[in-house]
Amino acid sequence: MKKIQLFVLAILFTALLQAQSTASQRAVQQTVTKLFDALSNRDAVSLKQYCADDISLYEYGMAWNLDTLINRAITLNTATDFKRINTFEFINTTINKDVAWTTYHLSSEITKDGKQASVKWMETVIAIKKQNKWKIKVLHSTLIKRS
Predict the structure, then answer these.
(1) Using CA atoms in the order 40, 120, 33, 133, what is the torsion angle rounded to 10 degrees?
(2) Which end of the chain is more exposed for a tag (fewer CB within 10 A), N or C?
(3) If residue 24 lies in a helix (H) or strand (E), which one and from where to where?
(4) DSSP letters of 25-36?
(5) Which residues lie closer than 8 Å to 98 by C-beta, 6 or more apart?
(6) For residue 10, what are the CA distances in angstroms to 2, 21, 23?
């Protein structure tokens, strides 16, 4: 009987750890999607909530900081018809204490200045946990296709 109880406890403990891990992974993924929501809404204030102060972004072979991202994606984006819809396919999300990394495919449908474009990237984010919230520390982006 004791063996059965230990076995049941082991299964329950494993299930509990898996559920916590999945919730933590979703929290990291949600930070990524909310960052892109802020970009889509051209909302610099919200964008900053999801970024570490010293975020590094690697885009198109260049290194950007948060000011560069805000300038290029929000300040200089004055198109009145701007619209961006993002779709994510998360490949893997790993958490080790207060550091997480996630890799995903990002597809964006973008309307700007009367033109529509579909863009696909493969990206990896490194996030850190500060004050119980995930913040993006590094984002590396590889362009897959633009049409």
Answers:
(1) -120
(2) N
(3) helix 2-40
(4) HHHHHHHHHHHH
(5) 128, 129, 130
(6) 12, 16, 20
Q: The domain spanning residue 66 has which CATH number?
A: 3.10.450.50
C-alpha gyration radius of the chain? 19
Rounded to whole angstroms, the Cα distance separating 27 from 20 reads 11
Tokens of 115: 């033109």
What is the residue range of 82's domain? 2-146
- Kindly report, residue by residue over 81-139, the tens digit of the pLDDT: 999 999 999 999 999 999 999 999 999 999 999 999 999 999 999 999 999 999 999 99
DSSP string for 44-68:
HHHHHHTEEEEEEEEETTEEE-HHH
Q: How many domains does the chain have?
A: 1
